User: Fold this.
Amino acid sequence: MFRNILQDIVEQSEGGISAALMGYDGIAVDQYEKPCEGIDLQLVVVEYANVLKEVKKTVEILETGEMEEVAIRTERFTVLIRALNDDYFVTLTLLRDGNFGKARYLLAKESSRLREALA
Amino acid sequence: MFRNILQDIVEQSEGGISAALMGYDGIAVDQYEKPCEGIDLQLVVVEYANVLKEVKKTVEILETGEMEEVAIRTERFTVLIRALNDDYFVTLTLLRDGNFGKARYLLAKESSRLREALA
Assistant:
């Protein structure tokens, strides 16, 4: 059930290569990916869990309200991360020239479906 | 000299409340802020240095090219962070309903001025 939603996100996005539903412990519940050379998506997922844990901690310390979304842009990719609840988040990796605005929209829209599926 | 650039970024942005030029060690070189209740901007700056260090490490491990930009959106604020070189980065904190696209544009544009000033 998660896989279908993740696939929808990747397929509907422009430039999306993978999406994952994961826990803050770095373990992916499910993921969907298009074949892509030169990137170990499994590793990506685990590493970004560490980043998000740090962001979550920071946001809690700063009391700036719940964390909603994190975007990381590098020379090759943009990774968009959206918090779902206290335990899980969803990531979408885009090629650098992918449509960032549409990716944000899709991730926000599908978050509620993922939250329902998790409940 | 840094202060003027940081002030330009905040004043030209829509919804910007502070900008800081900082090192990955969490020490601000300079910062400019508008008065804003309920947030300790000094603390924000130090905490986001930790986040960015984690992101930088992750990006290096993943070999997805140099880190360029990180955006963190919470219930109250959006923090936009842009890497300048191996030692320094610039942050812009926006109110949640601020203009995100314009903020990204301004930060990218003024990054070259900051880099020149740092050299």
About this structure: Chain A has a mean pLDDT of 86. DSSP finds three helices and five strands in chain A. Chain A touches chain B through 28 residues (CB under 8 Å).
